Amino acid sequence: MLKKIKQTSLYLKYRHMRKNLSEFLNFVFNFIEYKEKWIDDARYLENIKYEIYDGIKNNKMQLEIPQIMSVEETLNEIIKNKKSVCRYGDGEFALLTGVNFNPKTYFNMQPNQLLIKRLQEILVSNDERIIVCIADIFGNLDKYPDKIRKIARQHITSFREPLKNYIDYDKQYGNPLITRFHSCYAKFSLSEKYFNIWKEIWKDKDICIIEGEGTQLGVGNDLFKNVKNIERIICPAENSFAKYEEILEEAKKQSKDKLILIALGMTATVLAYDLAKIGYWAIDIGHIDIEYEAFINKSEQLIPVEGKYANDLGIQSYSISKDKEYLQQIIAKI
User: Under DSSP, is residue 168 helix (H, G, I), strand (E, B) or coil?
Assistant: First the structure.
């Protein structure tokens, strides 16, 4: 079509009059051969939301959309009822469904049938002590800024159909953006509010951080300034599920009075679940440290933090902090 347009005399005329706005508009609206199609397309795009709604209202189509809480609702549930948290994002969905899974993208996590089976099990579990969080990429996406809507639509296309086999549509899910709200919403007042809720969750508590080597949650910032005490179990930075039994056994040595925070990719989803089932308060905390760094540095986007492993930013190199307080916190290394 573009080639045909460029061959017309009208197009050649347009090249000589592009600085004259009124003549240009006259050219557009007199391009009769194509004008009608353009208008039809525009009307279709404008009207499609009404057509879809009408189809659903009159039961012409059946769409199942998971029940997913908002970020604030999920955070309030955690703090009020001491809920443990298992989070599913694009990595867990990709592994679970077998769609577009690339180990290099997800901490070099190798496809593992046991891990897939566990992710399937947890996704439909109904333990009242645990919130299972899944990405809110279904239905209306107006709550997100443009860049997030584009990413979400990519994932909808890939995951929506195969996920039907795994999601419990009668279940109330939490929102995994409880650890990704700053970079996704880019609203500083909202971020401050949500970070303050997190800080209330671990205020004056003994916490045990189970993290991949190089993650170094809270090192170099004040994210955990108000906790009573921190201990750390350091695990492999990549493909940590290969060491899962060792990690689980080390975690079970901890007192159940401690709050367990886990930053370990997909392994964290399973570990938080298994610990919660035996009485621990365990939260898959994800990349909250990188989010917090962006927030305190007044950046709307995630930014590299020197020395820290950040797979989401494509940074897989890291250096171990020499901070004495951090080194003293390490009680085990897998």
Answer: coil
